[in-house]
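FAQ: What does the model actually see?

It sees only this:
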Amino acid sequence: MNILIIDGQSGRMGAQLIEGLRKAGLGPENGITAIGTNALATGAMLKAGADQAATGENPVLVQCRKADIIAGPIGIVLADALLGEITPKMAAAVGQSDARRILLPVNQCRTSIPGTANKTRAQLTEEAVQMILQLCKPQG
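And it is asked to produce this:
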């Protein structure tokens, strides 16, 4: 599986996802590509254990076409989210991708998601890690 993690701002959520996948023993047959909307986010995700990383709009557009799984904060499908770091083209690329999307509900960016108020970011990240691991298991 080709796993694409997209994050912005500090990249902490993306880094937590990558760290969780690595700690869970995600095998080498599953590559993790990290795309940050800025250099700080990219660096954090690369340090967390991404196999490869890039920064900016065009890498998002290209990698969304190649990904089997896309994960990140829900803002990656909302134009102008993450304090304007998500461009309309980036949001469209994520939304139009054939990949399975695992979006962490973050009640920011003027978007509220009912049902998430009682879960910490750590709990949401762990759920996302488990979903990705389940998708990476060989079907048989």
